[in-house]
Specification:
The protein has three domains: about 220 residues, HUPs (Rossmann fold), CATH 3.40.50.620; about 80 residues, no CATH class; about 70 residues, Roll (Structural Genomics Hypothetical 15.5 Kd Protein In mrcA-pckA Intergenic Region, Chain A), CATH 3.10.290. Helix 15 crosses helix 16. The N terminus is likely disordered. It is globular and about 85 Å long. The strands form three sheets. A six-stranded mixed sheet has the order 1-6-5-2-3-4, with helices on both faces. A five-stranded mixed sheet has the order 7-13-12-9-10. The longest helix is centred in the middle third of the chain and has 17 residues. It contains 16 helices and 13 strands. It is of the alpha/beta class and about 400 residues long.
C-alpha cells in the first residue's frame, strides 16, 4: 500500500537520513512502505519538523515485561533522532479487548482495572523512553466523544469482507468459533487513533500488522497522508519457544528485583542471546557484531551474556544494582547463599519436608515440594535433600528450592 503521489518537493537523502533509515531497520520485521518512510525522513531533515511516531499499548495487565520493551527501544532510538514519540494508552480500546491472535473472544476489562493498570504503564515505559520528550495520550480523549453517530460513520469506512481477511477472524469463522460484533470495532478504533494523532509512523509487534494497516487506510479515508508501519518481532521468552508472556510464565518483568532479573537473563541460551542483543540492547550494531566475533573466536559466551544482563538490569534499576546482582549470582553459582532472604517462623516441629516448603512459601503445594525433593532441587543449609519422608526438627534452617528461592526458617 503506497500513499498517493504527492506534489511535494523531493528532498535530498543526506547521511543523517541514511543513518535514521538504518536505525529504523535495525531488528525490525517489516517497514512498510519503506520508500514512503525515506521520503518522510528526508522531508523532516530538510524542514526541521519532527515526525510523529506512535505506539499504543492496552493496559491489560499492571506490569510491562521485556517483550513490551522491544517496541519501546525502537521508539527511544527514533526519539533520540529528534522525532516526537507518542505513548498511547488504550484506555478506551481495552474495554473492547484486542482480538489479535486470539481464537476466542477476549474478555473486556472494567474501567477500574484499566485505571489501575494504566497508572503503572507510563511510569514503567519511562524507564526506556525520555519522559521529558514523550507525549502521553489516552485514546478515550477522542473515542468517547465519537458517540453512536460517529461510530457508525467510522464503521462505514471499512467492509466486512476486508475485515474477514484478517487471519484470526478468518480461522475462527471457518472453525465455527463465535466472533462478537464488537471485536470488529477494535481494529477500527486503533486505526482511528492514527487519524486523531496525525501519525507518521506506527510501531507494533508482528501480530499487530492488520491493525497498523487499518491506520493507513483510515488516514487516507480522512484525507491525511497515510502513516508508515514498522513491525518488530515478538520476543521469545525464557523457555526459548513461545513468545514472552505472563500467562506462559516465561517472562522477565521490568519491575522485578535486580537479582531475579539478572539470574533470569543468565538462563537464556547462547543462541537466543544474540536475538535479545539486537532487540533489547542499546549498543550499536557494530558493537554487537564485534562482541559476537570475539565469542566465535573463542571468548566465553557467558561474558557476553553477563554484559547483556548488566546492561538491562542497570537500565531498569541502577549500575550499582547490576554490580550487586552480578556478585549475588556468582556467589550462588559457587554454592553460596545470598546475604538477604525472607525470614519467617513456623510451628509444628518435627515438620515434614513437603509441608515445610509449602508453609515457607517456596512451593505452591506439599506435593510440588516432594517432587522437587525427588528431582534433587531442595537443599537445607546447603545440603541436598533426597528423602521425601524427612521430618525437620526445631531450629533455624536456610531452605533452598531450585537455584533462586531461599528462606531462613525458624521452626518451633
Amino acid at each position: 500500500m503506497s500513499s498517493p503521489v504527492s506534489a511535494e518537493p523531493v528532498h535530498p537523502l543526506t547521511d543523517r537520513v541514511r543513518e535514521a533509515l538504518a536505525i529504523s531497520r535495525r531488528g525490525c520485521e517489516e517497514l512498510l512502505p519503506e520508500d514512503d518512510w525515506v521520503r518522510k525522513l528526508a522531508r523532516s531533515e530538510a524542514t526541521g519538523v519532527p515526525l510523529r511516531i506512535k505506539l499504543g499499548l492496552d493496559p491489560t495487565a499492571p506490569d510491562i515485561h521485556l517483550g513490551h520493551t522491544v517496541v519501546l527501544n525502537k521508539m527511544r532510538q527514533l526519539q533520540d533522532l529528534g522525532h516526537t514519540v507518542i505513548f498511547l494508552i488504550g484506555d478506551f480500546t481495552s474495554m473492547i479487548g484486542d482480538p489479535s491472535g486470539r481464537n476466542t473472544t477476549r474478555p473486556p476489562l472494567t474501567a477500574e482495572q484499566i485505571k489501575v493498570n494504566a497508572e503503572t504503564y507510563y511510569r514503567q515505559a519511562s524507564l526506556v523512553l525520555d519522559p521529558e520528550r514523550t507525549e502521553i495520550r489516552y485514546n478515550s480523549e477522542w473515542c468517547d466523544p465519537l458517540g453512536a453517530r460517529g461510530m457508525i460513520q467510522l464503521a462505514s469506512r471499512y467492509t466486512v469482507a476486508r475485515m474477514m481477511e484478517r487471519n484470526d477472524f478468518h480461522e475462527r469463522f471457518h472453525a465455527g468459533t463465535s466472533i462478537a460484533v464488537h471485536e470488529f470495532l477494535y481494529p477500527l478504533m486503533q486505526g482511528y487513533d492514527s487519524v486523531a494523532l496525525k501519525s507518521d509512523l506506527e510501531l507494533g509487534g508482528t501480530d499487530q500488522k492488520f491493525n497498523l494497516l487499518m491506520g493507513r487506510h483510515l488516514q487516507a479515508e480522512y484525507g491525511q497522508e497515510p502513516q508508515c508501519i514498522l513491525t518488530m518481532p515478538l520476543l521469545v521468552g525464557l523457555d526459548g519457544v513461545e513468545k514472552m508472556s505472563k500467562s506462559k510464565n516465561n517472562y522477565i518483568g521490568i519491575s522485578e528485583p535486580a537479582n531475579t532479573m539478572f539470574a533470569k537473563l543468565l538462563s537464556i541460551s547462547d543462541v537466543q542471546m544474540w536475538t535479545w542483543y539486537t532487540l533489547l540492547s542499546l549498543r550499536s550494531e557494530a558493537e554487537i557484531a564485534a562482541l559476537k566475533a570475539e565469542v566465535e573466536a573463542g571468548r566465553n559466551p557467558k561474558d557476553a551474556k553477563v554484559a547483556l544482563a548488566r546492561e538491562i538490569v542497570a537500565r531498569f534499576h541502577s549500575v550499582a544494582a547490576a554490580d550487586a546482582a552480578e556478585q549475588d549470582f556468582q556467589h550462588r553459582a559457587r554454592g553460596g547463599i545470598p546475604d538477604e532472604m525472607p525470614e519467617l517462623s513456623l510451628a509444628g516441629a518435627p515438620l515434614g519436608i513437603g509441608a515445610l516448603l509449602k508453609q515457607a512459601g517456596l512451593v505452591a503445594s506439599s506435593s510440588e515440594g516432594l517432587r522437587m525433593v525427588e528431582q534433587g532441587g531442595v537443599r537445607i543449609d546447603g545440603v541436598a535433600i533426597s528423602d521425601k519422608g524427612l521430618k525437620i526438627e526445631a531450629g533455624t534452617w536456610v531452605v533452598q528450592v531450585g537455584k533462586r528461592k531461599f528462606a531462613r526458617v525458624t521452626l518451633g
